[in-house]
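ok so i was messing around last nite and threw this chain in just to see what happens. nothing serious, just curious
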Amino acid sequence: MKLLRFGRDFKPDQEVILRDYLAIERTRLANERTLLSYIRSSLYLLLGGIAFFQLKEFSNFEYLAILSLVFSAIFFVIGIYRFTLLKKSLKKLYYRTEEKENNTED
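result:
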């Protein structure tokens, strides 16, 4: 389960500067790009599974088709799960830095 735990241990201890805001934005965009990669891989596996089901002459491929469809669903769920975890983590970090800035300006 350590594979799915990322970004939870980071707590900003210094004042956030523009470079850090840009890094957060790059991380958010990379997170979206990764989600799209998971979706693309899931769709490829789905298409492969459907194609294996269409092969009537090779009945042995039916198990491979089912396995492909299962992995397609697993990839999709893992992609959504990781996306939401990192998105929540980034929101906490961003709001925490915004609160620090507002408190120092007052």
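not much to say yet. The CA atoms of residues 11 and 63 lie 47 Å apart.
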